[in-house]
Hints:
This protein is about 80% helix and about 0% strand. By secondary structure, the chain is an all-alpha fold. The chain starts with 7 loop residues before the first helix and ends in a 6-residue tail after the last helix.
Amino acid sequence: MVACHSDFRYCVAMLLPSWLPPPIRAVLTPDRVRMGQQFLQFGIVGFAGFIVDTAVVYALRGLVGLIAAGLLSYFAAVTTTWAGNRAWTFAGRRQDGAARQWLLFVAANGVGFVLNRGAFFLLVWNVPVCAAHPVLAILAGVAAGLLANFNLSRRVVFSGRGR
C-alpha cells in the first residue's frame, strides 16, 4: 500500500498509474499526470478568461467599436487568467512579485496574443457571422493561443525559479 501525501493532487498523480497496464503506465508518468492536471486547471482558468473576454467585447463594442473592444477585452482577460493561474494552477511554485509576474505573463504570452487576436481580427474582418457574433471569433482565438500560452506560462512565467 502506498502512503499518500496530504496533497490530494500528489496522491492522484502517484496512485493513478499503478492500476494501469504497463504500456500505458510507461507513458503516463506521475510528472505527465501532474502536467495534465495543470493543463486542465489552465483550461478552466482560461474559460473564466473567455467569459471576461466575451463580456467586455459585448459591453464595449457599441461604445468603442469591435476592434478596440477586442483589444481592451484581451487585457481584462489576460489579467483574469494571470490571477487564476497564479492562485490555483501554479500555486505551488515560487512566485515573483505580482506586478513583475503580470508583465512577464503578458510578455511571455505575446505569441499567444498574436495567435489569439490574429484569429479574432481576421475572422471579424472577413467572416460576417463572426462580426455579428464575436463570441465565435473569440473562441477561435482562444483555441489558437491555448497551447502556446500554457507552455510559456508553465516554463517561463510560473517556472518556480524566480529571479
